[in-house]
């Protein structure tokens, strides 16, 4: 099933983006094909190593409209994972040895079945990660008790905070987001997150057309600034490269920085990063149950390879564990420099 946006276009949104990534923005520049870059380093075809993480997109609805969002999420998005599809995901978790459930969106908490699903997955003994945008905790009274709910089920909370300054955070995520994010982090700290076994990790995305700096030094800066100024504590900082897709691709093209950014990614290709990219052990489930090698392939509508690997209803672990991973130009983003994944640097 295509997204609502794709249904309104003769050529799907994903295909339009892929065409741009292949052709570039001028006749004089075309980035080398990613598959041609990795083949000489012995990484093509790229094979899955197993399925350790089931990453579930619970819907594209979100209370924010972030400039870098690769999901193109927002309050007006209607795509939402139904209870029936979530039950299919639970059946897989019950019957397979997958250890981690990674819930994302949009804002996954806005799915009306969110709490039910977390409770069920927790009862199965799964490690649960929620990609929380922080401001959702303050968006409505019905979300105010989420820190306690997360604590009850020992959910790992992973939250985006572009910077420890209001100016740079609000520029990327919207006016007033920094102040609300600080309040939300303090709410999470108040129930015990950021210390002990309640995991609270932050995500950094560059605010411009450049690669993230070294994760370790950035983490030290974030910890000092947030602790000294706001009394906030957290575990790790994940530095994630912005993928040249969706809104970020639009930004690159509109600002005339597409070619420079793609050149940065191509020049920074690191064969060591290929060994540890998240698609090797993670399987992405779209809001409609379609299966993808990663969240970015999902947004480009590139399903997993193989006839048995298209939908969660037809889940075949053996086929998925041995599948070839489908690659395209955006994959330069995960293999540049120290590499990038949902858990930050990979090398």
Describe this structure in words.
The model is unreliable at 1-10 (pLDDT under 50). The protein is globular, with a radius of gyration of 19 Å. The protein has helices at 4-7, 13-23, 34-38, 83-95, 114-123, 136-139, 146-152, 166-173, 177-190, 215-230, 246-254, 258-267, 271-274, 295-299, 317-321; strands spanning 53-57, 100-104, 127-132, 156-160, 200-204, 237-239, 282-285, 291-292. The chain is 36% helix and 10% strand. Helix 10 links the parallel strand 5 (200-204) and strand 6 (237-239). With 347 residues, the chain is an alpha/beta fold. The chain has a single domain (4-332), classed as Alpha-Beta Barrel (TIM Barrel). Strands 6-5-4-3-2-1-7-8 form an 8-stranded mixed beta sheet.
CA gyration radius, whole angstroms: 19 Å
Distance N to C terminus:
36 Å
In what range is the share of β-strand residues? Answer: 5-15%
What's the CATH C level? Alpha Beta
Q: Helix content range of the residues, please? A: 25-40%
The stretches of 5 or more residues where confidence is low (pLDDT under 50) are: 1-10
Number of distinct beta strands = 8
The ordered string of helix (H) and strand (E) elements is: HHHEHEHEHHEHHEHEHHHEEHH
- Write down the CATH topology: TIM Barrel
Summarize the structure.
The protein has 347 residues and is α/β, with parallel strands linked by helices. It is 36% helix and 10% strand.
